[in-house]
Amino acid sequence: MIHSSLRTVEWKDNSVVMIDQTKLPNELIYVTYTDYQDVAVAIRDLIVRGAPAIGVSGAFGLALAALQSTANTKESLLEDLEKARKVLHETRPTAINLAWGLEKIMNVARSANDVSDLKESVVTEAKKMAEEDIAINMRMGKHGSQLFDDNDTIMTHCNAGALATVAYGTALGVIRATKDSGKKIKVIATETRPVMQGSRLTAFELKHDGIDVSLIPDTAVGYSMANKLVSKVIVGADRILRTGHVYNKIGTYQVALIARQHNIPFYVAAPLSTFDLKSRPEDVIIEQRKASEVTGVAGKKTAPDDITVINPAFDMTPPELITGIITEVGVAKPPFETSIKKLFESQL
Ligand code: MRU
């Protein structure tokens, strides 16, 4: 069994332990938090990132907030938790998993009997969510691996791996499962400017696990596809609408467009917790990040002073560019409005 030994986030002795992803690939360092405010800063500053990983980190943050609270009635403890939920939620607006993870913990808190029951049950629920994330990724991997063939070269963008989840990964989980099923595969990772999740994290993670990976600049996607270096694409997602519109790392849309031009299948892998069945495209907030991510490289200025910068962290890939959406309960194929509905109905 190929199983990444990287564990991104974990609950240990009433504290949250996570890999500091800003230090990768140069150092593999773990940080420990006992204050939910520090977890919020860690999410905002990309110490932990990736939709499922921030969902679970948000849940752990709320569990810390419950333990930190000195409230002696359930009602005042719920008030403290509501404040913490807001602080954690405001860190990153696009990935729906964060709101999902926080809401799940709030629901458990609301149905607790008293203060001590509440504290115990939110910790138990957050730990359960972390374990379920790994099991879900492995189930997703099994479904997805059937779509990939021996000798495929698979392009991926950003990092949708162990480092974007609790462990194993979504898109990279499918790649792990495909290799595990005995098929020979290679991966091409885009570097994913400006934060370099592809080169810093995906290349690191796949190398760490002995999976054949080549790194390309984002600008070489067209070249690689035109020269038949790529047989399929797989990416993760931060939010998927019921219509099959997929929000993922900036640049995903370009990759999908070029894949379509060259008739290359384009797959998305994401758990059901990444689906937002209520919103329409105009409701989704695209996170805009700071200019310094674009005006410098590794601490060195690469743009003139006071240049105007546009730095969206995510883009939307329309359903017509997507071949299939892989989830833990099966693969949705076009037309997505019908197939996504069926996947959710199968869970009732
Ligand atoms: O800004 P990031 O690094 O949090 O963006 C992450 C992505 O866009 C991932 O592709 C997405 O969250 C899916 S992770 C399984």
In terms of quaternary structure, the protein is single chain
- Radius of gyration over alpha carbons? 20 Å
Ligand list: 5-S-methyl-1-O-phosphono-5-thio-D-ribulose
In N-to-C order, the SSE pattern is EEEHHHHHEHEHEHEEEHEEHEEEEEH
Please report the total strand number as a whole number: 16
pLDDT averaged residue by residue: 97
Helical residues, percent: 40-55%
Explain this structure to me?
It is an enzyme of class 5 (isomerase). Belongs to the EIF-2B alpha/beta/delta subunits family. MtnA subfamily. InterPro entries: IF-2B-related, IF-M1Pi, IF_2B-like_C, Initiation_fac_2B_a/b/d, M1Pi_N, NagB/RpiA_transferase-like. It catalyses: 5-(methylsulfanyl)-alpha-D-ribose 1-phosphate = 5-(methylsulfanyl)-D-ribulose 1-phosphate. With 348 residues, this protein is α/β, with parallel strands linked by helices. It has helices at 36-44, 51-68, 74-89, 96-110, 115-145, 171-180, 197-208, 221-226, 252-261, 292-295, 336-345, and strands spanning 9-12, 15-19, 30-33, 152-156, 185-190, 213-216, 232-235, 239-241, 246-249, 266-269, 275-276, 296-297, 300-301, 314-317, 324-327, 330-332. The strands form four sheets. A seven-stranded mixed β-sheet has the order 6-5-4-7-10-15-16, with helices on both faces. Strands 11-8-9-14 form a four-stranded mixed β-sheet, covered by helices on one side. 5-S-methyl-1-O-phosphono-5-thio-D-ribulose binds next to helix 2 and strand 9.
